[in-house]
Amino acid sequence: MGRPKKEFTARKTIQVNVRMTADDYSKVSNNAETIGLSIAEFIRRKITKKSLPKKKVSPSDRKLFVELSRVGNNLNQIAKVLNSGIRDPFSIHRQLEEVKTLLQYLKSNIAHNDR
Asked: Where are the domains of the chain?
């Protein structure tokens, strides 16, 4: 038993050919691949203003985002202490060391990431 035939109005019967530069094609291709769509479906959704799926984030990238968020949080805490007028050099020094350690960890992960 075969697949039911689509109604004529639902069929994609018209083909449109588009010329673009290699740079434009590369951008469209990368964008489509990032969200897991074919190039044709990506272009179809863009021109009809239909919603696009969320970008797929690899587990390693997700881990990097979390670590960057932690670094940002530490920097905000340091700025808050400095701007409050409270001088606690040990606390600030400890937090700066933690930020330094996290940044070194992130750099090593990015350097060893096999993209």
From this structure: 14-47, 59-111
pLDDT in tens, 17-54: 999 999 999 999 988 888 888 999 999 999 998 888 77
C-alpha distances in Å from residue 95, one per residue of 13, 42, 77, 115: 62, 45, 8, 31
48-74 per-position pLDDT tens digit:
988 887 776 666 777 777 778 888 887
How far is it, in rounded angstroms, from Cα 80 to Cα 92? 10
Transcribe the chain into DSSP letters.
Answer: --PPPPPGGGS----------HHHHHHHHHHHHHHT--HHHHHHHHHTT---PPPP--HHHHHHHHHHHHHHHHHHHHHHHHHHT---HHHHHHHHHHHHHHHHHHHHHHHT---
